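can u pls check wat happens w/ iron/sulfur cluster
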Amino acid sequence: MLFQHEVGRGYAGCVDLELLEQTLADRGEPSFRARQVWGWAARGAGGYAEMTNVPAALRDTLAAEVPFSSLSLAEEARSADGTVKALFRTADGHPVEAVLMRYRDGRRSVCVSSQSGCPLTCTFCATGAMQFGRNLKPWEILDQVLHFRRLEPVDHLVFMGMGEPLLNVDHVLAAARLLPELGITHRRTTISTVGWLPALRRFVDEVEEPIRLALSLHAADPGLRSRLMPVNDRYPLPDVLAECRRYFELRHRKVFVEYVLLGGVNDSPQHARELAALLDPKIFKVNLIPYNPTGRYEGSSRDTIAPFKHVLDRARVPATVRLTRGRDIAAACGQLAATRRHITA
Ligand code: SF4
């Protein structure tokens, strides 16, 4: 399909592009029409009717034959802190969640899903406990962003929603390459991985755009990390950290380390010392994430988080405690599980 040939050169659609292209081809329309449609969508158009440089009859045809979004909105919840969580369905019925986070300094950051569910089974993660559906198409990823783009301009994006992005690396990169057209630069785009090594190597070697890398680490001790994240048995941390080092050496950009603090599990000063010993302060910057309980684990108290961070500070490992957003609507890290119970506003 045209999409597969063109996506690497920055050409794609807000809609199911394969269907769009087929519809245009069946009508003998020129190939630039798909780009016209995409341009409108990327700028936040609400539907085909707004596309004034597309002939009216064609707009009517597209409206009848090609759904404007590849996702349908099932539920939307709004947090007291301004966070918005959306639950979508793909055309074949798979649930997908995305979150818009609004910050006081004006940043508008979207957390998107790369898969419906996740085949990995990190024990602290609500997504890992749900049934895996499938990888999302590039336009299903972009449509999560465009949903919020129609509410207001957005300028940051993290691949930290449902799914392991590097298990769907081609579609994730195809979507990421188009984000600047939506107002999100590559420098403000972050792909987060648990350390899926084959695709991480490709990401380090092949991706030229300055897209940021984040590593979900959560425990420095191999045994504990394997208990929290079974993927650690398949791709051990030293190999993953070596790839992160290569990323830093090639790009001169620090790697974010995500560390979810689980009460009584990985949040003691000894755990912090192990983490500090593992991380080169030149290469890594740690985000400490207070855990949002999903049943199996407790969150860490403030009295535990402060000494943990103090250990990192003393070791001069840069670390911040992430502001938790959307906890009251189950939109915070580790809570995405497409449950109507959570998403009812
Ligand atoms: S933390 Fe990420 S990789 Fe692990 S189960 Fe959840 S979504 Fe999958």
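The CA atoms of residues 94 and 220 lie 35 Å apart.
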